[in-house]
Amino acid sequence: MGKWRTVLLAGVAATMLLATACGASTQPTTTVVQPAAGSVAASPSSSGATTALKTAGVLAVDSSSELGPLVTDSAGNTLYRFDADTPSPSKSNCEGDCATLWPPVSADDASASDSLNPDLLGWVARADGSKQLTLSGWPLYYYAKDTAAGQTNGQGVGGKWFAAAADGKKAGVARKSVNVLDSPELGPILQDKNGKTLYLFTKDQPWPMKTACDATCLQKWTPSGLVSVKDIEALGLDPKTIFTFTTPNGTKQEAYNCWPSYTFKGDKEAGQTNGQGVGGVWFAIKKDIVVDRGKTIPAAKAKAGSSSDTSSDTSSDTSSADPSAAATDAAANGY
Predict the structure, then answer these.
(1) Can you list the alpha helix ranges (DSSP code H) found in 181-267?
(2) Does residue 322 contact residue 306 with C-beta atoms inside 8 Å?
(3) How far is CA 251 from its chain centroid?
(4) Which residues fall within 8 angstroms of residue 83, CB to CB, at 6 or more apart?
(5) How far apart are CA 285 and CA 61, in angstroms?
(6) Is the pLDDT of residue 221 over 60?
(7) Paired strand residues for 181
(8) Percent above pLDDT 70 for the chain
(9) Which residues contact 252 (CB under 8 A, 6 or more apart)?
(10) I want to staple 7 with a disulfide (CB 3.0 to 4.6 A). Which of 90, 101, 112, 286 is the partner?
(11) 188 Cβ contact partners less than 8 Å away, ≥ 6 residues apart
(12) Are residues 228 and 279 in contact, defined by beta-carbon separation less than 8 angstroms?
């Protein structure tokens, strides 16, 4: 099942350039699945009633011409999420006839392919005690009227059912220019409009702003796009959090508390955090940002069991240390 977190049942549109106190801007896949996807698993409750849950096997990300990337089981069947459910705490509100039309996905024997962040998988106990698979806290379901792999007949049903994107959000629905991923390992971190994790580079200079990401660095790290004040405020953040940084080649890049932001080419799908801790100098940008001219680095700390990948770098392993010290301690560029 990979990394699991048991969940208790009780539980940006026009871009704006904003000058702040930052100062002037400067120039390996899982292959074994048991039992086969589509088989039924159920756990008895104390009352003797059960809910039939369908096992999914290895979850993957498929591309729909209409909806874009979405999550499927090992047989290519679309998995859905329900707006009436809650992700934190995880809770399913689909029982009885609803669960007949929308069979819950069993957590038993489910795992993530390398296109999914395994840290986002978990389970929630249903009313009968059975374990339902969750993705970023959202309970997952099949749709009974999908009769073949690749079908998405459940999309938009009742205005509440949507195919699940790789980070648990709604597939086929436009995202804001900046979003939040509630990572079980890293806490709430920022994403771009495509669901890609935003990172900062501790070798950059926040005051006055200067990037250390050269041509070699840019082969793996992409300067992030601009965001809107409206979308920043929607996250409950001060508009002064963002600053438009002009890179040496003249392009515009968004910065958070004066730290330029990037996406990692090693993150192939939404919700992945493979750039976390790379070289001991790259860190996901956390939502909790203090506006103080970059003195406080808004870097999420890597934790044991996260999907961070530092194996390709020879710098000292500081992924679990204080990010503010990482820039000093790292021996390599962290590219």
Answers:
(1) 229-234
(2) no
(3) 26
(4) 159, 160, 161, 162
(5) 24
(6) yes
(7) 189
(8) 75
(9) 17, 226, 244, 245, 246
(10) 90
(11) 180, 181, 182, 286, 287, 288
(12) no
